[in-house]
Design a protein that fits this description.
Bound molecules: zinc ion
Order of helices and strands: HHHHEEEEEH
Largest sheet: 3 strands, mixed
Radius of gyration: 16 Å
Number of strands: 5
Structural class: alpha+beta
Number of helices: 5
Shape: globular
Length: 138
């Protein structure tokens, strides 16, 4: 499920996104933190190293990544969008205790959708909730 390429600048080029240092930094952060961060987490994570970045830049960069199919925006429980570098078919499990979001393999495209045959589907999400093994052991 890891991206085939791991050099941020190359990934940007394959998605036909013009390479800039800020885009590289945001993408590098997402590759290093595959934990579905929010824009606030990405912004404060990057702020430690670079001070020129504004939150709007981070947000705009993420919006560009999403529209290029490089990153997936997921909104779990409808509030804050989280950014997922893993765009392939997978489901999410949210731990109700620690709040962490885990990826799991599931073939979403093979789920039965006959009842939606007249609908246009733009996005498919599989979302489970529960308690993760780390919290169960506490
Ligand atoms: Zn947990
Ligand atoms: Zn995910």
């Amino acid at each position: 499920m890891k991206p085939a390429l791991s050099i941020p600048a190359d990934i940007l080029k394959t998605h036909k996104i013009r390479v800039s240092s800020q885009r590289v930094q945001v993408l590098a952060y997402l590759l290093d933190h595959q934990c579905h961060p929010t824009v606030d987490q990405i912004y404060s994570g990057l702020l430690k190293d670079i001070h020129i970045l504004s939150k709007t830049t981070v947000y705009n960069t993420l919006t560009l990544f999403v529209s290029s199919g490089l990153v997936r925006g997921i909104s779990i429980e409808g509030n804050e969008t989280r950014y997922d570098i893993t765009v392939g078919n997978h489901g999410h499990f949210k731990c109700e205790s620690c709040g962490e979001i885990y990826d799991f393999n599931i073939d979403i495209d093979s789920l039965p959708t006959e009842d939606l045959s007249c609908f246009m589907i733009n996005d498919k999400n599989v979302y489970f909730k529960g308690i993760c093994p780390k919290c169960l052991l506490l």
